[in-house]
């Protein structure tokens, strides 16, 4: 009974997204810019592209740091150091995402006197670090020690063993962690409010404000215009579909993981 | 076996020198590189604390401790007190916990103890899907679907039958503290459920078998042998949920009404620390206004980090003890 109550919001949200959003998800939505207030039509092409750009910047920051940090925890660190780092990573994961926005605002936006794509990407990238660090560590620890010993016995140096044998064996799990982290930050709005800021036009510069899908949904949802509400639903449907596709793909990918690692 | 001659020894040495031992440099460099990356978490914690502290220094100097205890929020007169936001954050999170804790733990118990095996995995997947819905989308749904429904059906009902409690008095607008609490509850249900499930799964089977052996029914075994055994861990799960609830931003901002006031009625609009940041940060025109908002961020960071520390410590001791037990 309680399980039904827990699942109910999922069903309801998805149901309402479908009935309110599906009619507005059309070719225009994916290819056109937003139109001025009062005109009907237009799309969110710039926001979709903007979100992808932000994810790319975030990935460039979060993926290398998170993956290599996770490798350190699994392969090198002493028990003492590890428990401290792991602890801090878990605490960081619990920090509200809006805090990251405030920090990056102070760090980048105030200093350069401009909202920018770079600042938005940085905020999202920082959120990714502890997420990826923990998932990478978990999957690297799953690689059996025999693999490491076999490589070392052949005279392969330790770092090559780690890169070519251990990380390669765990690559599926590492990629899963990265994809889940991307899906998670892809829907984040709070850290973007005062870093990426949003933009109603195309942006071709990393130091200019940039649009993002979740940001656009928020702006449209709290606006008083019906046509914008309609577009907010469409945007939400597209965003949720994207996130669910990543999640389901990952779920299918990981179904065979236990076998491939063991 | 003939003794090794000098020539042989020379030959061996020649081969060895050609085989030069694997370079230590690559190993050291890689270890340092990964260590540098791992220490990013330390840097980040310090960075957050430092940035927030520097950003809010102006406001801290000007308002001192009064910032936390006064309730005027007037950017025009440059008077800033965070009390209504702290109040709103605590009350909305409390509502969320009251709803989400029993539901989450009951669901976890159902998933580990009672549900037929074939239904468990699909249910777990669905709950993870719920966790994947972005806050802003839940907020959108909250504004256009949940709030109107609450306003038309459950709220008038509560008012009619429980109106004598101060919590349920006053006019019903729609967006309000109660709606904020409910949306937070939806957002923290998945994490409470999944952590509780993990905790309950680590309860040794002996516990259950002992209860059954004493003639307990399934429900009694769950309640006595499993739930009370896992009490501490479940408490950790709840605290972790609380940490998430306190920092929940977008969805709450969209349904809570955004009015800084301290009133008993849950039908009145409220405001939270995270929401005021979301709404006013880009509008802060003066340095002191911005400083006050940074200080709000600092307060929020302080509260959530304390709550998270507590949760991690609780969960950590549980995992440690169950691990040693497993070894024994």
Feature tags:
heterodimer; A: 262 residues; mainly alpha; MetI-like fold; 0% strand; globular; disordered C terminus; B: 328 residues; 2 strands
Strand pairing plus helix content of chain A: what structural class? mainly alpha
CATH architecture of chain B: Orthogonal Bundle
Strand content of chain A: under 5%
Biggest sheet record of chain A? none
The mean pLDDT of chain B is 88
What's the CATH first level of chain A? Answer: Mainly Alpha
How would you characterize this protein structure?
The complex is a heterodimer of chains A (262) and B (328). Chain A has 262 residues and is mainly alpha-helical. Chain A has helices at residues 2-21, 27-31, 45-75, 79-93, 97-112, 117-142, 145-153, 158-169, 171-186, 213-221, 226-255, 257-261. Chain B is mainly α. Chain B has a single domain, classed as MetI-like fold, CATH 1.10.3720. The model of chain B has no long low-confidence stretch (mean pLDDT 88). At the A-B interface, helix 1, helix 3, helix 4, helix 5 and helix 6 of A face helix 2, helix 3, helix 5, helix 6 and helix 7 of B.
Q: Could you give the topology of this structure?
A:
The complex is a heterodimer of chains A (262) and B (328).
Chain A: H1 2-21, H2 27-31, H3 45-75, H4 79-93, H5 97-112, H6 117-142, H7 145-153, H8 158-169, H9 171-186, H10 213-221, H11 226-255, H12 257-261
Helix pairs in contact in A: 1-11, 3-6, 3-9, 3-10, 4-6, 5-6, 6-9, 7-8, 9-11, 10-11
Chain B: H1 6-18, H2 24-38, H3 40-63, H4 66-69, E1 73-74, E2 79-80, H5 83-114, H6 117-132, H7 135-152, H8 154-162, H9 177-201, H10 205-213, H11 218-227, H12 231-247, H13 250-255, H14 273-280, H15 287-327
Antiparallel strand pairs in B: 1-2
Helix pairs in contact in B: 3-15, 5-9, 5-12, 6-9, 9-12, 10-11, 12-15, 14-15
Nutshell version of this structure?
Chain A is mainly α and about 260 residues long.
């Amino acid at each position: 009974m309680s399980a039904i109550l827990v699942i109910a919001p999922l069903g309801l949200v998805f149901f309402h997204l479908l009935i309110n959003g599906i009619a507005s998800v059309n070719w225009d939505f994916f290819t056109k810019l937003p139109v001025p207030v009062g005109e009907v039509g237009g799309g969110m092409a710039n926001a979709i592209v903007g979100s992808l750009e932000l994810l790319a910047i975030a990935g460039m920051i979060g993926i290398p740091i998170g993956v290599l940090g996770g490798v350190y925890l699994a392969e090198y660190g002493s028990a003492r150091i590890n428990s401290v780092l792991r602890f801090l990573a878990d605490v960081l994961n619990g920090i509200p995402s809006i805090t990251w926005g405030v920090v990056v605002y102070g760090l980048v936006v105030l200093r350069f006197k401009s909202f920018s794509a770079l600042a938005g990407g940085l905020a999202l990238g920082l959120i990714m670090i502890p997420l990826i660090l923990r998932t990478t560590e978990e999957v690297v620890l799953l690689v059996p020690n025999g693999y490491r010993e076999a490589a070392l016995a052949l005279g392969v140096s330790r770092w090559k063993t780690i890169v070519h044998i251990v990380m390669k064996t765990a690559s599926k799990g590492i990629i899963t962690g990265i994809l889940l982290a991307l899906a998670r930050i892809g829907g984040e709005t709070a850290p973007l409010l005062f870093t990426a800021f949003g933009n109603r036009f195309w942006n071709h510069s990393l130091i200019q404000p940039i649009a993002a899908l979740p940001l656009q949904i928020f702006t449209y949802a709290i606006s008083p215009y019906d046509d914008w509400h309609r577009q907010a639903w469409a945007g939400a449907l597209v965003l949720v579909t994207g996130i669910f596709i990543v999640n389901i793909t990952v779920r299918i990918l990981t179904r065979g993981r236990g076998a491939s690692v063991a | 076996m003939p003794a090794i001659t000098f020539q042989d020894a020379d030959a061996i040495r020649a081969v060895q020198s050609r085989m030069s031992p694997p370079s230590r440099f690559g190993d050291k460099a890689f270890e340092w590189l990964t260590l540098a990356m791992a220490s990013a978490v330390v840097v980040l914690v310090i960075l957050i604390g430092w940035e927030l502290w520097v950003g809010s220094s102006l406001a801290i100097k000007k308002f001192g401790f009064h910032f936390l205890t006064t309730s005027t929020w007037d950017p025009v007169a440059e008077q800033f007190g965070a009390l209504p936001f702290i109040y709103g954050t605590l009350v909305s999170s409390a509502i969320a916990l009251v709803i989400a804790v029993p539901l989450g733990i009951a669901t976890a118990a159902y998933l580990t103890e009672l549900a037929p095996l074939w239904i468990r995995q699909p249910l777990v997947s669905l709950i993870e899907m719920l966790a994947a819905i972005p806050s802003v989308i839940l907020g959108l749904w909250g504004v256009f679907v949940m709030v109107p429904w609450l306003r038309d059906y459950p709220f008038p009902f509560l008012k009619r039958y429980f109106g004598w409690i101060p919590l349920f008095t006053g006019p019903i607008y729609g967006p309000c503290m109660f709606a904020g609490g409910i949306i937070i509850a939806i957002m923290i249900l998945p994490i409470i459920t999944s952590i509780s499930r993990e905790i309950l799964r680590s309860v040794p089977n002996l516990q259950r078998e002992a209860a059954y052996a004493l003639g307990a029914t399934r429900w009694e075994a769950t309640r006595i042998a499993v739930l009370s055994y896992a009490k501490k861990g479940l408490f950790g799960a709840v605290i972790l949920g609380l940490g998430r609830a306190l920092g929940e931003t977008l969805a709450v901002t969209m349904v809570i009404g955004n009015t800084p006031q301290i009133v008993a009625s849950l039908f009145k609009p409220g405001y939270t620390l995270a929401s005021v940041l979301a709404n006013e940060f880009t509008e802060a025109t003066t340095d002191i206004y911005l400083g006050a908002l940074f200080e709000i961020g600092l307060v929020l960071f302080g509260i959530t980090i304390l709550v998270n520390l507590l949760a991690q410590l609780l969960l950590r001791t549980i995992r440690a003890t169950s691990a040693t037990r497993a070894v024994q």
